[in-house]
Amino acid sequence: MYVLGKECLVIFIKYGILLATGGGAFGCFTNNDNLWSIVQQAGAHTGDRAWRLPLWNYYHRQITDDPAVDLRNQGSGKATPCIGAAFLRNFVCGEWVHMDITGVGKVSHAGAPYLAPRRMSGRPARTLARTLEHIADACANANANANATPKRKPESDQKDRQ
């Protein structure tokens, strides 16, 4: 996937944010402020709340100080969403977004009449679709601008005007 001409990665991992938000928002980690802005705007448009969580060095050290982290695919701390994001920060080259959706994706709660209790809600699928649509449009516009060549007037026209 590309964001404004650069590769990026959108990832859904699991669990953790449900305890923090009670299902009121999905967690979002990213190493790029532009990607965060796109996800946040998409969520506002679709009605899904995104909550940006930190990529502090505290969590990064729990990945880098563990000699077997790449073998186990996990760090050594308790804050699993933050450590998952620190894992991505350490091992993914390029820009990325990590959306922790378990709190909003698996449980339909708070009385939404169109969702059966304790079933998949589909959230934030619309936010992801809107995010990807925005990224695709930005790529198409960037490619169109890159391929557009400025029209130059023939030299004879330029000499006549001087």
Automatic annotation (TrEMBL):
Keywords for this protein: Aminopeptidase, Hydrolase, Protease
GO cellular component terms listed in the entry, alphabetical order: cytoplasm
Positions of the Cytosol aminopeptidase domain: 17-128
GO molecular function annotations of the record: manganese ion binding; metalloaminopeptidase activity
A Pfam family this chain is assigned to: Peptidase_M17
Residue ranges of the region described as Disordered: 141-162
Composition bias, Basic and acidic residues: 152-162
InterPro entries recorded: Leucine_aapep/pepB (IPR011356), Peptidase_M17_C (IPR000819)
Gene3D superfamilies noted in UniProt: Zn peptidases
Annotated TM spans: none
GO biological process annotation, one example: proteolysis
Family: Belongs to the peptidase M17 family.
Protein name as annotated: Cytosol aminopeptidase domain-containing protein
